[in-house]
Amino acid sequence: MKYTVNSLLVMQKSLRIRMSQLNELKNESTHRTIFTETKQIEEPVYDVKRVDTKIVRINNALFEIDRAIKESNAKTKVNVSINYQNLTTPIE
User: Fold this and answer.
1) Residue 19 and residue 62 in contact, taking contact as beta carbons nearer than 8 Å
2) Potential cystine with 7: which of 3, 17, 49, 57 (Cβ 3.0-4.6 Å)?
């Protein structure tokens, strides 16, 4: 699929937020504790492997987005009216 760089940057931001949420979910609430009169029972709320798989997929997508943006930036030329050499020479 083809996306604009701006769209990819928005997706990247959204995916980073989602990955953070999933990491928090994986670390804190992958089980539910039920207290009875005699014991404490822990039941899984989410399958940790499925949560981890989703995190890996999002991470791979972030790498792909980053690669595509860098590749696009390497090919794109921008016309600016500055003289870099003149700006970086010592003051006389």
Assistant:
1) yes
2) 3
